Each structure stands twice: as structure tokens, then as C-alpha cells.
């Protein structure tokens, strides 16, 4: 790593970063627990954003609030000119009632940090302090992105619309992984998380008495046919080497067992890793809806909305990032497989080269599932995340 001889990090970057993260850990855990006890849903993160802004102000880091609604942007200027690297953390919670029994459990009924965004927020605040102190070593600029509304896959776009991506050259994201033991890190090359699209289908028939189906047009039968045929989109129309998932999660219609309803509504999602599969899935579902009209005498109204793009890790960021993590910790990095989950960090990574680091947060005997009422990450992942992300930024802006 290029250094300036007078800076404390010059001779022992791994040790200095480790010691700094260890000293910060108690405060960061306290901040995390405070945020955890007061979860806020998408675009409601006013209290969390206030904590972030107060911490950045304490550190003397220039920042802007209200970005994309409740987002916060902080800026650390390096000692020399160079590229601008964004490091992003999400802040929102989930509409889940917590059942961990922790002393700092959610105080808001039906709301919980069940995905670890409280961990992420605290981690990035730790990175902010380490990089502030190391600013003379940086050849470039670090933008700290505290993002709202990741769970609704809309916060990144809102921040970008408010200027959050202007001037960026590189983007670094991260996520705690409770299915990986704390102390290990992971990555995936290329497409790592899926595009997430949504469709709504209204099938309009003609209501009638169940005893006289010939006098009606049954939208339930037509809707059921659509459910069945939609499963062939993946099995028969998309390249088997291109993962895709079509899920219909809602089918509503009818008011009584002896009445054929006037209409039914179906809602579903499509997740794909490759553009060709995404295009094929949309075209296929539209064709199936059109075919229902001829086959079942119904009228169909299909609304298909494309959501976030797939998250594609760029080797330009991945390779130096993984090298930096290894330089800090040694051989603790595992290559993993892609997931069909979605993440709106992809909105940043679609605009500039980006990479999302996986940070192990699991411990034996603890629930290792994201998005569930018993989720409990190992808080040691905060200090480890601070070390990893700080070292990555220092190496990339050396």
C-alpha cells in the first residue's frame, strides 16, 4: 500500500486498523443496539438518519441529510487527487414482530431489524472514523452512503435521483451473512444477485351461479391455468444455464363457494440473473396472458414492472477488494455462488464498477436466517467489517 512515512498507518496498516476497530467496537455495538431497539421501515428512518448525522458531525465529516427522502451522504476528502469511491450501508428495518428476547429487542410492535441493517449502519460509522483519521493517505475521495428503503428496493433509486451517484467512479457494498461464521468473508464473481420484477394480472370473467357454469365465464379456472403455465416459462423457455424464478404469491377472487366471481387478481415476481432470461420471462408471461383470452373467453390485464437490475460484481473492484481483505486477515475469504435474492445496491453498481462484500455474522447455536423473527447476528462482525472495508478503501485509493 502506498503510504506517507509520517502517518501511523505507514508501517503497520493491518495492526493499526485492527487496533482502531477494536477501540471503536464498544461504541459501535452501543449504536447498533440503540438502532435495533428503534427500527424504522422504508423512508421512515428519520431517527436512524439523525443518529448517523450526529455521528458524522461529531467526527467533523461534511454530510448532507434528506437525500432521497431520509438518506445521508458523508464525504471524506483524501490528501491527494484520485477516484471517488462510494461505500454504502442500508438503514431500514422489516415489518416483522421480533421474538429474540434480547434486552435491546425492538420496542416497536411489528417492526424489527431482521436483516442486519442496524449492523450495516454501525459498521459504516466505524469505517467513517477510521478513514477520517487516515484521510491524508487517500488518493481520492470516499462518499459514505447511508441509504433508506433497501427492503422495498426503492431507496437507492431515490438517492440516485437526488444526486447520490454524481461524480462516483467506484462503489463498494457489503452485507452481513449469518449463514457464514463470523470471521470469514465471501464474494461471488459476476452476477451475484438477481433482478427483481413484479407483475399483476387481473382476469375478468362473468359472474354466475355455481350450478350453471355455462351461463358464466369462470376467471378462477383461467387464473389457475395461468399459474400452471407460468411454471413452464423457466422449465421450457429460458436457457437452463441461466437461473430464473417465477413465483405467484397472491391469487385472490370470489366471495362465496356457490358463486363464480366476476374477476380474480394474481400477483407475482420474476427473478433473473441474465438480461436474456429477463426479456424472455416478460415476453412469455405477456404471451400467456394473451392466450388465456382466446382459450378461456376472459379478458386479461397484465401489468409488468421491471424493478432493480441484477447485481453484477465488477472484477475492477472485486479483485483489489479481496486482495485487501486477505492482506488484513489472511486466508479467510471464500468464493460463493450467486443468489436469487435482490439488492438495490445494484442501482449503484449498474452505473459504476461495484462489488458487494459478504461479511460472516453467524455463530453456533444462533438463528442463521435473514428476515425472520429470531434473527441474531454475532456483533463481532461489526469490528471485522470496519477492518475489511477500511482496508479496502485504503488499498483502492492508495
Task: Give an overview in words.
It is a single chain. The protein has an eight-stranded mixed sheet, with helices on both faces. It is elongated, with a radius of gyration of 24 Å. Helix 3 links the parallel strand 3 and strand 4. It is 35% helix and 27% strand. Helix 3 crosses helix 9 and helix 7 packs across helix 9. The chain is an alpha/beta fold. The model has no long low-confidence stretch (mean pLDDT 96). The chain folds into two domains: 267 residues, Aminopeptidase; 111 residues, Alpha-Beta Plaits.
CATH topology of the largest domain: Aminopeptidase
Biggest sheet record: 8 strands, mixed
Low-confidence stretches: none
Write the CATH architecture name of the largest domain: 3-Layer(aba) Sandwich
- What percentage of the residues does DSSP assign to strands (E)? 25-35%
Helices and strands, in order, run as: HHEEEHEHEEEEEHEEEHEEHEHEH
What is the C-alpha radius of gyration, as a whole number of Å?
A: 24 Å
User: So, the CATH homologous superfamily of the largest domain?
Assistant: Zn peptidases
Strand order of the largest sheet: 1-2-4-3-5-16-6-15
Give the fraction of residues assigned to helices.
25-40%
Q: How does the overall form come out from the CA principal axes?
A: elongated
Number of helices: 9
Total number of domains: 2
Mean pLDDT: 96
Briefly note the structural class of the backbone: alpha/beta
